[in-house]
């Protein structure tokens, strides 16, 4: 049984995906399904910040905080960096995250 995740694209469009396999990253779900703004240029290596999302407040505790490397990448997009910023390639999907909702951050270019 997979999990359900929702991305809110920059124009407000909600994209919900059901029965998504765990064990992949949130970024992979977005990229595979063509979610606008999830470019994932580095392929998930925490080296580009083009998979930046804002985690819905209700989910922040379960998703957790970024590590120091991720935090440094987020600083590179500092004008869009918020307290609930995460790089979606660094969020592995688990059963615990069933129902997760994130907003896609502006890419800035
Ligand atoms: S895909 Fe490049 S940092 Fe996430």
TrEMBL record:
Ranges where the 2Fe-2S ferredoxin-type domain occurs: 3-108
Keyword Iron-sulfur annotated: yes
Protein name: 2Fe-2S iron-sulfur cluster-binding protein
Family, as annotated: Belongs to the adrenodoxin/putidaredoxin family.
CDD domains membership: fer2
Keyword Ribosomal protein in annotation: no
Top-level division of the source organism's lineage: Bacteria
Pfam family, one: Fer2
Keywords: 2Fe-2S, Iron, Iron-sulfur, Metal-binding
Cofactor: [2Fe-2S] cluster
SUPFAM superfamilies, alphabetized: 2Fe-2S ferredoxin-like
Natural source organism: Novosphingobium rhizovicinum
